[in-house]
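Standup notes, protein team

Yesterday: finished cleaning the Brumimicrobium glaciale set.
Today: CinA-like protein structure.
Blockers: none.

Input for CinA-like protein:
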Amino acid sequence: MKAGIISIGDELLIGQTVNTNAAWLGQELGKFGISVYKATTIRDIKEDILQTVDEYINEADFIIVTGGLGPTNDDITKETLTEYFGTTLELNKQVLERVRFFFEQRGKEMLDSNIQQAMLPKDALILDNLHGTASGMWFEKSGKILVSLPGVPYEMEALIKEEVIPRIKSSFGIKGNYHQTLMLQGIGESFLAEIIENWEERIYKEGLHLAYLPSSGLIKLRLTSVKGNEEAGKINDYFDELRKELPQYVYGMNEETIFESVGELLKSKNATLGTIESCTGGGIASSFISKSGSSAFFQGGLITYSNALKHKLANVSLKSLEEFGAVSEEVAKEMALGGQKVLNVDYTIAVTGIAGPDGGTDEKPVGTVWIAIATPDGVFTEHYLFGEHRGRNIEKTGLYAANFLRKLILGINN
């Protein structure tokens, strides 16, 4: 099945809003074996919409249009599609009541412009949006399907999952592909490819599809079977091989973050964690508490950006700070041990580094990071030289620190 995505909105083209919808749709449709052949972003201009829709109708089986369904004058998608499909707008009383209830629930007054959102194409199937005021619309023409959805990501995603995908599966008899994703941290794509070369050859012979999905500090390995979940066991067996071969890198499955993985591990051990951060400025603590239930293991964190606070809050000696500098193994160790005592926890992650873009020296260039972890069995350190990009250095420091803790808890050697 051939699908196309049309994103409508001037704000997308001028960079005011990032078009996350197209990326999400590509991933979601791929789960069901629906191939996106093209994605286009266009302006809120009638002629552009008509031309692009006509092009896609001639080339694709299924088209998703996002954006331009709001209550303001520049939202012209509904009117333009109504014209294209040769129908008319009429008041949909059921939708009007839903929109009115939407505002009543929130104690707000419904404006005339919102009433206009209940004016919908007579010959379209209306998809109820339970999360907003703009309904989705399902059009059919010459065996082709076009679905128009609101551009607000969480509204669009809910409509895709609850309304669109079930209908597409029914209309086209789609069973869907089966995907599983293995999450790895701390290894580069080229190094990983070299290590698993033989494994990769075997999975291709089995008819499975492999995708490397790298990002900063992480790699996702996605295996896909076009036979649906018939080959779920086979995929899991292949991933089990990598878990055994690469335990220092493999930490989880299917979009699980390293912080979630470590959190579950700490909870299973009934162990507690604290953080003491310099170069990451609280980012590691924030990542650990981003998921509910973190209070079961996370006790608290300290941000000791200055030397004075390293000394005052974590009892780092002034002698060490003067002799070795704030970015050093010695200071990282003292931070971890001091944090462990102050926070009264089993494990403490301490990080100190030069995030950049300035502050580096020949001896300690930008990207230099020391990670120390205090455990019930002592304090352990790792040293990294990441690069010159401040944001990536901060992000990588958190990822590598969390994985370092995971390895220590599990007794995994590099």
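Follow-up from PR in the comments: The mean pLDDT is 95.
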